[in-house]
Amino acid sequence: MTINESRFLSDLHKLREFGASGVGKGVVRPAYSEADIAARKWLAQKMADAGLAPHFDPVGNLFGLAPGRSLLLGSHSDSQPEGGWLDGALGVVAALEVARSVKQPISVVSFQDEEGRFGVTTGSAVWSGGLPLDKADSLTDASGITFAEARSSMSDLSDDFVDPARFEGFIELHIEQGPTLDAQGDQIGVVTDIVGIRDVVITFDGQQNHAGTTPMHLRRDAFQAVSQFNAMINNRFKNMVTPQTVWTIGRVDLHPNASSIVPGRARFSMQWRDGDANRLERMEEIIREAAKEVAESVGLGLSFGTMLGLEPVSMDIKLRSALQMGAETVAPERWQKIPSGALHDATNVARLMPVAMLFVPSIAGISHDFSEDTAESDLVAGLRVLEHAVLSLNA
Ligand code: GLV
Ligand code: MN
Ligand code: MN
């Protein structure tokens, strides 16, 4: 049997129905939400139908296990709070299609909380031993719910983690989530490396006060501090970053968040990514120093939350060559080697076994947005490259 492209596309569209946002093809399926759990149950049934043994581990990572030793394929099926239909889902459904089509044993995985409701790629970080379970359990989401509470909302979790020794390697198909392939008219990207990341919550504590009566020079305004801090790091990073370095303040919680109150507290996420671990470290020094200077000059308290992070990783040469041969067969002269600026579960899995990844284009480079999309011919090309690689590894 060979892969069935229409069955693959139909399953991908079916998965989109879990948490469909009603805006374009977008989904709202954050880790452990009702939609996420329902999607995982549906996937578990699909795995069973494919002859795989479904296994929910203690954090809700879902494995479909082939007997004996096998290659592991997959990605994640949770989404960002406003997510696209393909981010993660593509890799899981493609894995399922390959597993039910080829003769060799293939296991499938959908990792939990890749999108970081609690941490950074939390489910695969715990499975790989990069994040101890007790530390993960104390992480909280934006509304204060702990990881321990969220995972206890899933029934049918096993007490056991899957033994990674049963897998020969891991391959993850994903959308690029950036502009390169689309802009250059290529159909496939074979990933060379995945960048590293640091992520921390910073809090400035000032004095909440009346917005009409408090003179400007007496204010200890937490928002003004965030604004100064942002300008300061942008300026200090100038001399030490590359065009690939990125940093983001993506969430700011102001307290009490009212027009007539000088904000007394600002809690915000600070995230930065780069392929060079030394640069990540130097950026951290700049961030800590700038926050301290601003806090002192405005007269604020300053605290840092748990520092989360992943190191940059390179893809395994043998698995990567198999993908390159597949790309050359399926999309001759329409593929390229490409680094990943997005994070992936593959980074964690690389602690345990050889890993590789391939990308298909994201239309206009948009992702983490309801409008994220990819041409169906490109989705199918990615599936076919994955199948070629898997078959050649067995030859
Ligand atoms: C994963 O979605 C990331 O933030 O790169
Ligand atoms: Mn993803
Ligand atoms: Mn994502």
Q: Could you characterize the architecture of this molecule?
A:
- The chain contains twelve helices and 17 strands.
- It is α+β, with helices and mostly antiparallel strands and 395 residues long.
- The strands form three sheets. Strands 1, 2, 3, 4, 5, 6, 15, 16 and 17 form a nine-stranded mixed sheet that branches. Strands 7, 9, 10, 12, 13 and 14 form a six-stranded antiparallel sheet that branches.
- The model has no long low-confidence stretch (mean pLDDT 97).
- The structure holds glyoxylic acid (GLV) and manganese (II) ion (MN) (2 copies).
- The site of glyoxylic acid has 3 residues, from loops.
Could you name the key traits of this structure?
395 residues, alpha+beta, nine-stranded mixed sheet, six-stranded antiparallel sheet, 17 strands, 35% helix, globular, binds glyoxylic acid, binds manganese (II) ion
Task: Outline the secondary-structure elements.
Elements (H helix, E strand, L loop, with lengths): L4 H12 L17 H16 L3 E4 L5 E4 L4 E7 L12 H11 L6 E6 L10 H6 L5 H5 L9 H6 L14 E9 L4 H5 L3 E7 L1 E10 L3 E2 L11 H16 L8 E3 L3 E4 L5 E2 L2 E10 L2 H22 L2 E4 L3 E3 L2 E2 L2 H14 L4 E6 L4 H5 L5 E6 L15 H19 L1
Parallel strand pairs: 3-4, 3-5, 5-17, 6-16
Antiparallel strand pairs: 1-2, 2-4, 6-15, 6-17, 7-12, 7-13, 7-14, 8-11, 9-12, 10-12
Helix pairs in contact: 1-3, 3-12, 8-9, 10-12
The protein binds glyoxylic acid and manganese (II) ion (2 copies).
Glyoxylic acid binds next to loops.
